[in-house]
Amino acid sequence: MKKLTIATTQYGLTDIRTEKEFWTGIDTKVREAAEQGASMIVFPEYMTAHLLSLEPSMLHDEACYFLDGLTDKYTKFFGELSRECDIAILAGTHICLEEESKYSNKAFLFFSDGRVETQSKVHLTPEEQIRWPLVAGDELNVFDTEWGKMAILTCYDIEFPELARAAALRGAELLLCPSYTDDSFGYHRVRHCAQARAIENQLFVVLSGLVGTLSEDRPQVDTGFCQAGIFTPCDLPFAADGILQVGETNENRTVLAELDFHRLRENRERGAVAPFYDRRPDLYEHQKTLL
Asked: Is residue 21 annotated as part of the catalytic site, yes or no?
């Protein structure tokens, strides 16, 4: 199995003045990651909501309508950039119309051969359920790549162990987690759960997030808190803390690491503990019948 050099971003909510400046900034980050040898780059949840800062303040339904209007440009831009730079791009998440007046928070992963894998966020936060006109995804996409099977768990999704376990049982060895948290409480919930999922399923988890603060408040996205990272099981042959690489908290930067799936197999076969294999599903099912 091939090693994967992956880049994950702490994407800065800087004060942009034009839409071109937004796309140019992303183009620069992708090209820099490719030049450093990355074969995949991960951007955060709600990244395209940065463009709302160029418009007068909107209500949430107006913001969804505005962002959905950029979908064709979004898919064309990332599809072409992926092919040109020969790098897979998880282009954060983007608000898309799913049905009449209902939108999804959808992650798009563009491959250089033109393939696109998508995943709608499965678990919506209370704010997404109440203030945003969003609908939850009802399918988990576990997909094949040249590096192995992967799945995308967006932000709040990583806080539900059942979803990550379902991905692992279907063969996923890498979970990609684009996130948006606007304070340290939300960030640490996502971060600690990301590391827990890596430990209990003996796989890699890659976390990306928004950082920084806009000079003008926006009701959707205007401040972010994150320390992006690449996480492993807390067991040999990995580091004791399960951290392969992390960034500097709240800096606008990109973090790179090499994922060696042979070492992951070594952990599963010869680690000190084997939580993925030592599960007792029959016992768990029995306990549920006692409720």
From this structure: no
